[in-house]
What does this fold into?
Amino acid sequence: MPAPKRILVIDDADDVRILVERQLERLGYAADGAADGVAGLEAIARSRPDLVLCDLRMPRLDGLGVLSELRDKYPQLPVVVMSGEGLLQDAVSALRLGAWDYLSKPIAGMAVLQHAVGKALEKAELLAENQRQRDKLEVLYRELADDQDAGRRLQLSLLPEDGMKVGSFTLTRELLPSSFLSGDFCSTFSLPDGRWGFYLADVAGHGVPSALVTVMLRTVVERWVLEGRDASFFAPSTFLKALNHELLRQRHEKHVALFYGLVDESRSVLACGNAGCFPWPILQQGGNTFAMELPGMPLGLMDTASYDERTYPLLPDTKFVACTDGVFDVMDGGSVEEKSRRIAQAAGSSATATELVQVLGLTQHRARPDDVAVLMLTRGDAHALRTS
Amino acid sequence: MPAPKRILVIDDADDVRILVERQLERLGYAADGAADGVAGLEAIARSRPDLVLCDLRMPRLDGLGVLSELRDKYPQLPVVVMSGEGLLQDAVSALRLGAWDYLSKPIAGMAVLQHAVGKALEKAELLAENQRQRDKLEVLYRELADDQDAGRRLQLSLLPEDGMKVGSFTLTRELLPSSFLSGDFCSTFSLPDGRWGFYLADVAGHGVPSALVTVMLRTVVERWVLEGRDASFFAPSTFLKALNHELLRQRHEKHVALFYGLVDESRSVLACGNAGCFPWPILQQGGNTFAMELPGMPLGLMDTASYDERTYPLLPDTKFVACTDGVFDVMDGGSVEEKSRRIAQAAGSSATATELVQVLGLTQHRARPDDVAVLMLTRGDAHALRTS
It folds into this structure.
């Protein structure tokens, strides 16, 4: 059985106060008394009753004074005021000051007392329950958000370091998840023969399940490098085909758009393959900027998919920029063609991935409809390219 | 500039109603009028005003009737009542019925009107803002929970199928995450020479970051199998050492407790290694039950860690049971020794991992302080073992 609700009766008329206390006790409540407003506030601070029954006209501090005080200090505490008949203006003032209900003295029987007190306690319980639900929801949300944030930090730690050197290139990247975790990511690796590879991937969906798949994908590629696959394995057409089979084998039914490049600096050649990554990556070198239009099917959809390979000669001043298709959803206004043009322009004028996402206004959206990842590789004088 | 707040004035006295409407308009509100309670309710349903100013004594439906109706249908709509002086009992009734405030007619000037209306609108705005915050929090929580639940399903899909055959054994398992995603998991693999391995792992922490590490770990082991490492690599001491180096290389600073076993059915031998997994796994065969006491350091802590290997002959009737240390936190009452005894007993009497977690009462806790994973491998007549 729950403990009885505790009610404080504040009234300077001893006989009335004691009578009401008795009646409340007979109704199953635990009653206590105070002889004026000052004593009442002290008793409330001391014992935190569940409800206060308060006379209005009292010496030292009257009922309206008690109400003002309680409204600031204990806004949730239900107060029912009692006043002599004919003092209706008092009742109006009290109700406007936040009294929960009003009883005329002498109280017209136990039923009236029971009704007023019971109703106020019920409403207070309802409000308290609402508050508990809200607090609980906040705690639950905070737990999940903290958990996801820790996951996000781990995911970010798996990205190549922003500004790192790969061969003679500088790599910069940005990852803007739609929530905490991202289905987009990028990575790079070096082969023993001096060649190095990079890829930008967009796992279907977003959030935790897609992030789990990015980790699987990244680990698989890393293992391929570590296990010392022979050089031909990393040629784009072979590599993408193997990754396609791997994703189908994993059976999680998340397909992946992925752009892959393999750089052979000794021969100044970039070999590329594209598994459905769009917008087309931008290559800027020797004063020319062009989109690397390489159609191809996303990974993990069809066992028979095959991938074309294209090679580009690398000039001393080179900039490569790729981003995932979330960029179209996050950019403001315009058709895909217009946005593609703006991306190409911004790619040309930006020195780093961070600058690019700022120029495109991607960071100003706090709620992004999709993840966006940007990978930029620069060699030579990126700044000269930028201002030319 | 925001649109002006819309106020509906309900009063059967045309002159009063029109005067109040004019005053409200001069105060910057958009005012509309209705000549009695019925017309007022219709206007409210039609135009959803921001506030209602309502006379009390009216033909057809009076102010108290309007209040009762509104309290049910639009509990958030602020209503300020107006009543002739000397009709204080009406005011008391109205306030008790949920009126937000009370004005005496004739209204004592624009300032009084402005004060009452402004205060009520302000409070309504506050309540609405609270509600919006609560709704937003619920949406945010729901999004994260759905996201994590999708992640959980993906993680579960990576576990070995419950009840699957591995060699001549039946594998059953349970994964009870503390939240949605788990840092505990188990897996199994088969080697081309007919041997097969299994492991139970507990990544430090829980939730999303630990789940990401389980996926990395699982993918690494899978790749080792797929890349066709030679047979000696999968011997427990070699395997655990390699896994230790791999975790240190990954630099995510999450250590892992892991029990690993390699079964050679042609020679009827189980070879085991333990990297800090506790409670000790239970082996039950030939009428004997014993704890496999194999101390060892968790993976990912020290580069120099090495791991002992122990072999057990396998009898036709064999049951192997391992669980992660979350079991101690989730089980009720008793010391670790007592709980270990109860786990060993329950392991002996349970035919599946699911039965074991039920016997130990692990599923009755809705909020678990830690993840728990259980892996059970049985061969021969598990039921006979169970009832013996």
